[in-house]
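Cross-posting from the modeling subforum.

Setting up a comparison between two proteins and wanted a second pair of eyes on the formatting. Protein 1 (sequence, then structure tokens):
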Amino acid sequence: MIEGVKLHKWADNIEHTLTEWAMETVQEWFGIDDTDEMTEEQVTALQNYVDENCDTSYDWVLMGFQNVLNAWENANYDDD
């Protein structure tokens, strides 16, 4: 029997790596130092990019970009 592989840890590591790569890419695209400082226009452009590519064979890679968008929303909107 195969044991010892913790797939949830693999998944967490892959998601973390994709998110780091997405953050670096977004920073390069927009010439910013922190993705939390994106403008509304930049956020819309990123969301459009995610939406345009969500039906491709690479849709799972977009997880990193979606995490960047979620982090931006968390940093820029109050939970009132």
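Protein 2 (same layout):
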Amino acid sequence: MGAPPAGIESRLEQAIVAAAEDPDGALAAAEQAEADGAGLSGDERAELHTLAVAVRGRVLAIRGSYREASSLLREALASAPDAYPKGQVRLIQALVFAAEKLGDVEDALAWAVRALETAHLTGDEELVVAAETSVGVARSRCGDAEGGLFHYRQVLAHFEATGQELLSVAVRNNIGINLKNLGRLDESLAAFERAAAIAAEFDRPRMEAVIRSNMGETLWLLGRHAEARAMLSAVIKSVRTGGWASAEINALINLGRVLTDLGEDAEARATLQRAVEAIEASEERSYASDAHLALAELHKRAGRFELALRHHEAYHREERAVFDANFERQVAAQRVRLEVEEARHEAEVERLRLVEVGRAHEELRMLHEALVATDAAKTELLAQLDQERRTDALTGLLNRRSLDERLREEAESARRAGAPLTLAMCDIDRFKLINDRYGHPCGDQVLQEVARLLRLGCRREDVVARYGGEEFCIGFVGTSLEDAVALTDRLRAAVAGHHWEQLRPGLQVTLSAGVAALTPDGDAGLLVASADAWLYAAKREGRDQVRWPAQTDAA
């Protein structure tokens, strides 16, 4: 079976690339190509239809109809001609994009790896590069920024070597995102600036808007608020009527963060609320947790703790929904893989039975050993994934997701037993200044050392976690509020008295903390919010101290 005529196939390939900037034109090209191929043979027509569906699925995803795109592409992939791997790869690429936008990151990675394996079978270098890009996207969205960066750099090197500047724009944008996620902000900004310049040179305004919505976050993280504000406001204005929900939502969230830092409460609140409404009106669930977290931070800074708690709970619901869905997909995918392996094994047994018996036994032994080794590797990988899912990569402490699970369990246990449960929320004082003065590597070392001191000063049954950024959380199991305050103050003193100058001359680190106790009618979420509120009281009243509810009368 051969491919469709080169001219028609080339037009469809170009339509896939152009879909991001001109979705209407891409759809028209797909319709025209199918009309031009009406007189082809059945096989050629089926192959041409595969590429046309890839264009339609890509356009649907670009316009925000991710579920419709995913359904269309999966159906087409099930009937795609086996002898036309190029069409299969293009369908899978579009499917990766839709799955990633729906938050199905593990699903996206599985599809991306399949696309890369299929592309290698064709020997088509351009197809391999396109599939490599999909793997980079999927690995990045799974939280593996370094892994994603590796694939992006491979793709960028190819585009630079072949002079394909326009195709390099999306890759440079993705490199900028990953560098930002790794804290390499100056490199991130340079990558975004180069990508935006090329997009402008080729007159790709939508592409440029997406890049600048991402660049605005890097500028915010660098503390360049005025530039970030101007850039993000311009992006929002330019994409408002363009149907690019993801770019607008991303820009709204980042602008809300900037306005929060600038103290412009009312405008920040209105901007972030617009982001939430835009998310609810679209399928952009991947941004929902970021929007609610930004609103929680805004309300917390303004002292609106009830609203902060409400958005913080919404943030956790979104995170939990993504986590639960991904976990279910992983279990289902693993079950399917095992069933496929068993079917292959049975087919191999039957084949070998028809060959010579002695050789069959030897091959079966080798196959069995390979399956055993594969199963052992799978078990090890699942254990590693579970460990990574539960712990913070930098400090080795429990991460926020594990903290939430443990606190819910401990709260239920405490209520049943009538035992106390207390929580300390701790924050490194002026941590941004440490990063600015000594650099981010030093900041990471400070986080690791503080985590070590906290773990060392707590009991085995206590729950010690990195809450996020420079915040840590300690759940004191079976401990009264009075004893928890004393323990927390001892930890605060241990941090303040540590020999930080051995890490960097002149370095000094202190800790502020708020402590709260579980109330009879309260829950884990309320306990966290209460401890967080007392942490902010400690910050307001001079830092390097512990605050708790018993001080209400004195305060």
